[in-house]
Amino acid sequence: MLTSLQNAKVKEWKKLHKRKYRNQMGMFIVEGFHLVEEVLNSDWEIIELIIRDGTDFTIPEGLPSVLVSDTVFRAIAETETPQGIAAVVKQKDHTYNPARLTLMLDAVQDPGNVGTLIRTADAAGFDQVVLGTGTVDAYNDKVIRATQGSIFHIPVSTGDLNEFVQQSIEAGIEIWASALQDAVPFQQLESPSNAALIVGNEGQGIKEKLLEKADKRVYIPIYGQAESLNVGIAGAVLMYHLRG
User: Fold this and answer.
1) Which residues does UniProt assign to the signal peptide (predicted)?
2) How many CB atoms lie within 10 A of CB 26?
3) What residues of the chain score a pLDDT lower than 50?
4) Quick one: 61 and 131 in the same domain?
5) pLDDT at position 143, please?
6) Sign (positive/negative) of CA torsion 115, 119, 124, 125?
7) What is the span of the domain harbouring residue 68?
């Protein structure tokens, strides 16, 4: 059982909470019974399980695991009340390909919003999610928790949205952008058979260069006194409309 915070493996696990080291090592950590079960039931590769001493968990045969003390587990955990189970998982390199339904995020920075959007895209039956430049890392701890396991169900790729939008246009996919200026209420439009939906930064919205490429600029009418909708909520409304 590992009990020392100075152990090399423990130090490596702690580094995985930083984007720089996650990318260098090609790994990330998921924590808690639900997320560990989700990754176990997926085709993602688990490097090893981390189990706190005394935690009741059946280890799948042949899967490497490390038993650690409560002190060590709390040092590597990101939750306030750790459940005593975590997994080190190998990252996947998903490649963007034009598809029937794609969600694109332009510089969405809040981890909770990004995780919620990935989860909703999964629920709405979208084919993939693309994280544009400036968007928070898909393997951020808070993003993963907010996805509630959907990160393991739907391809999530990262890159330059300008390139991906152009590829989509060339493939005959209609581009929808969530915007306020020169936009129409989404209810007035029929859902196209193939679409890519772009949602933007919480404060600045979608970059003008991307807006110029959009076939449709749409907005969600506000009937009460709220100034606006959270990007996670707005994205959900538009995704389900596009789903038809």
Assistant:
1) none
2) 13
3) none
4) no
5) 98
6) positive
7) 8-90
